[in-house]
Design goal:
Largest sheet: 6 strands, antiparallel
Helix content: 25-40%
Strand order of the largest sheet: 4-3-8-7-6-5
Radius of gyration: 50 Å
Strand content: 25-35%
Shape: elongated
Length: 811
């Protein structure tokens, strides 16, 4: 709408007949005059009176015109006026101007009383047309029920308005009324300030949005758009303000709907937690769309499973309520089952994915059970309820229930369409969270099943392992720990981290853990074990699809602790250094030289050996424990070291210490898995070990049997004398015959009796079945039959063949 047209029309109407008209000739010359041109003609058509406005219009003075026929002033008399015996009541002619130009005018005539004289009123035609068009515009505007026009005087009192009953507060607005008589005081004050500024400055206001409340109904707000301009008289002096109030409710409603849809798109679906997603959806709806909102989901959806095909009220539980401060009835409570509703024809629309709207009376009639009504209906004066299904991928996951209470308007058909769109988007977000929950739980279950027992108790150490799955949508990433009992009372400690997330990472972790178990049984040095593990990773990468080869890899720390020597040998494949907590409570990261991650084979690893006091705690971990959003490894490792020093106490169980550490260090929803292995070391007393150097002489075999007899008698193991003498005889004989000095014999007494023979040869002994005619080859066979188990391990300076025998009376 052109505000200038309205301004011109209102100004012409407000001048009450003083038009300030002007005319122009063909040459564009402008002839100005004020008012309508008037003349009086006698019964012959001669001019008898000539007004000043007629002189302004034509340029002829009265003495030049009076007494002359008016036809002499008309140029190009129209055919319909030629020969006319009476003056027409109206018409359009061209008048001569004193300067020789012509003026196109429109005229009206009327008799003067009972005389024969005729009054002629004339004005330039184009001004008459403008005036008529402006009047028609005003009539059209006044007829619009969504546009209120008000003309205010300089005191801002209402002079004229088209306000009719129903356009404002249901009562007609009388002249002299002020805005404060119709609107609430604050809203009237704000609007009058705007109108006063227009009156004082003359600058119009165009489409300024205002929220107002009527005096008789202050609780409800209405959206208006105000346009206003100043009215002036012919001399440019302010005479008032014209204001146009447009009903902006539809536009504001559409804008609110767009804002709501945008907020749903921005806020709902960021979390991959089902309940958090449902709460985000409820928070968006209340109070922006409804006074109260609840989201109910099928019980199976909470666990990540698909809902049943026929979903009813009894199959659902409440997942979210908004606002949290609202007083909800007893039947609507977070986590509680939703009571089933009776069948109703309108519920068919719900089952087909369409929202259903009820008035309060309709809802009560549908429920029909007074106790159920008390159980379900909010107490805050509800007026209208809308129930919308959460329908996604052919599944009905649950429902949204929205209530409007108090003075809020009931839900409309347009809002039902909007709710359908919101419910569709919300259902997809909830279904994504449900599917993630299912996959995440499956991956975590697989991960947990592949991990070793949480605690172990061996002669070398007691251990406690803890695993914290990733949260916030990251998924499990294949972190693991392990404690492997080795021969000669030793223990291997492992911590590792696989590249990737989810099921593939858990499967790779299981394969690596099985490989480490196998390689550990070979009693390899830590650096050699990691080298072979890196070769395995290379084979796994070659087997993977071409697009996944770059994500096959990981890091690993492998350590072997010997309780006899009280030393720990370790090597790292790109893994963080362990932390050692000494018995006095001091903690320090172990200085090791980490090699490349397992995916990068071809580079050597380095074994680091440290002395460990009995009662110390060795902590192996993955980077998820020291990396988080607000810190990197450089910050996380000192914090872990401080926490270990604070929590590791001799009188505190390791699993309790581990839980306290995770609670202290881990995020609420960590982005990466975290694994922690704590090992409190033990030592075999010196009195439970014995060592004897073997001379390179065949006679040393008999001396070794004598030494064994004395040592076992001292330990009270007389029942093992015979078998131990045979085992030692065979091992010492093989060392003298096939090995190289120096050689030695060691006995370890614990829950088993360990016999070890070490020589400087790297020859690998091999168990075989000797033929009847063979003179040798039966030694290791006898050792394997007499002892519980046997084996061979290689070191930097030779090999060690060992055998274990169970001690019957050992605890």
């Amino acid at each position: 709408m052109d505000i200038e047209n309205v301004k011109n029309a209102c100004s012409a109407d407000a001048s009450q007949g003083s038009t300030g008209l002007s005319g122009s000739g063909p040459n564009g010359r402008l002839y100005a005059f004020d008012g309508l041109a008037a003349a009086v003609l006698d019964n012959r058509g001669a001019v008898v009176r000539w007004t000043g406005t007629a002189e302004d219009l034509t340029g002829f003075r009265a003495e030049e015109v009076c007494g002359r026929p008016v036809q002499e002033l008309v140029a190009d008399l129209p055919d319909d006026l030629r020969g006319a015996t009476e003056m027409p009541t109206s018409g359009r002619v061209r008048l001569r101007h004193q300067c020789g130009d012509t003026i196109d005018v429109t005229f009206r005539t009327t008799k003067v009383g009972s005389s024969a004289e005729v009054l002629v009123l004339a004005a330039p035609t184009h001004h008459v047309a403008d005036h008529e068009q402006g009047a028609a515009l005003l009539r059209a505007l006044s007829a619009q029920n969504r546009i209120t026009i008000a003309v205010h005087d300089t005191d801002l009192s209402t002079v004229q308005t088209n306000a009719t009953p129903g356009t404002l507060d249901g009562r007609p607005v009388q002249p002299g009324t002020r805005l404060s008589d119709v609107l609430c005081a604050k809203d009237a004050e704000n609007l009058e300030a705007v109108l006063r500024q227009v009156l004082e400055t003359g600058a119009p206001v165009d489409r300024r949005n205002q929220q107002v409340s009527w005096r008789h109904d202050p609780a409800r707000q209405h959206a208006l758009s105000l346009s206003a301009f100043r009215l002036e008289d012919a001399r440019g002096r302010p005479t008032g303000v014209a204001a146009l109030y447009f009903d902006n409710a539809d536009q504001m409603r559409a804008r609110r709907h767009l804002d709501l849809a945008r907020e749903v798109a921005e806020r709902v679906g960021k979390s991959l937690d089902v309940v958090r997603t449902a709460q985000d959806l409820a928070d968006v709806l209340a109070p922006a769309f409804a006074d109260l909102a609840e989201v109910d989901l099928a019980h199976s959806v909470f666990d990540g499973e698909e809902p049943s095909k026929e979903l009813g009220g009894g199959d659902m539980g409440n997942a979210a309520l908004a606002p949290a401060t609202a007083v909800w009835p007893a039947g609507i409570k977070r986590g509680e089952p939703v009571p089933p509703l009776p069948d109703h024809p309108l519920l068919c629309s719900f089952r087909h994915g369409e929202p259903v709207v009820f008035g309060l009376d309709e809802f009560i009639a549908m429920v029909s059970d007074p106790q159920l009504v008390e159980y379900l209906v909010p107490r805050d004066a509800p007026r209208s309820v809308m129930v919308a299904p959460l329908h996604a991928r052919g599944l009905t996951l649950g429902a949204i229930t929205a209530w409007r209470c108090g003075r809020s308007d009931p839900f409309t058909e347009d809002e039902a369409d909007l709710m359908k769109q919101i419910a569709s988007r919300g259902a997809l977000a909830i279904d994504n969270a449900r599917r993630y929950t299912r996959e995440h739980r499956a991956a975590v279950a697989l991960q947990q099943s592949l991990l070793p027992p949480a605690t172990t108790d061996t002669p070398a150490a007691e251990t406690a392992g803890l695993y914290l799955p990733a949260g916030g949508g990251a998924g499990s990433s294949g972190d693991w720990y392990d404690a492997i009992a080795l021969p000669s009372l030793r223990v291997a400690l492992v911590a590792g981290d696989v590249v990737g997330h989810g099921m593939p990472a858990s499967a790779t972790m299981g394969r690596l853990r099985a490989a480490i178990q196998t390689l550990a049984d070979l009693e390899l040095e830590p650096d050699e074990l990691l080298t072979r593990l890196a070769d395995l990773i290379q084979r796994l990468a070659a087997e993977a699809p071409s697009g996944d080869r770059d994500i096959v890899g990981g890091t690993c720390l492998y350590a072997v602790y010997d309780p006899v020597t009280r030393r720990c040998a370790m090597a790292s494949a790109g893994h963080p250094s362990p932390v050692l907590v000494r018995p006095d409570g001091t903690a320090q990261a172990v200085g090791i030289s980490p090699g490349p991650p397992l995916a990068l084979s071809g580079m050597p690893y380095e074994t680091t050996v440290i002395d460990v006091e009995p009662g110390s705690v060795l902590a192996l971990y993955t980077d998820g424990l020291i990396e988080r959003g607000d810190r990197d490894i450089g910050q996380g490792l000192p914090r872990l070291t401080e926490a270990l020093a604070a929590h590791c106490r001799p009188d505190r169980a390791l699993d309790e210490t581990g839980r306290a550490l995770l609670a202290d260090l881990a995020d609420q929803a960590p982005r990466d898995d975290a694994a922690l292995l704590l090992a409190r070391t033990r030592a075999v007393p010196a009195t439970d070990t014995a060592h004897w150097e073997i001379p390179a002489d065949p006679a040393a075999v008999s001396k070794a049997r004598e030494w064994i007899t004395r040592q076992l008698t001292m330990w009270g193991l007389d029942d093992l004398l015979f078998t131990t003498e045979l085992i030692v005889s065979e091992l010492v004989t093989n060392a003298i015959r096939y090995g190289r000095p120096p050689m030695d014999l060691r006995l370890i007494h614990h829950h088993v009796l360990v016999c070890e023979v070490t020589d400087s040869s790297s020859t690998q002994p091999r168990l075989r079945r000797a033929r009847t005619t063979d003179e040798g080859g039966r030694g290791l066979f006898l050792v394997s039959q007499l002892g519980g188990r046997w084996g061979c391990r290689h070191g930097q300076n030779g090999k060690t063949i060992w055998s274990e025998q169970a001690i019957q009376d050992s605890p």
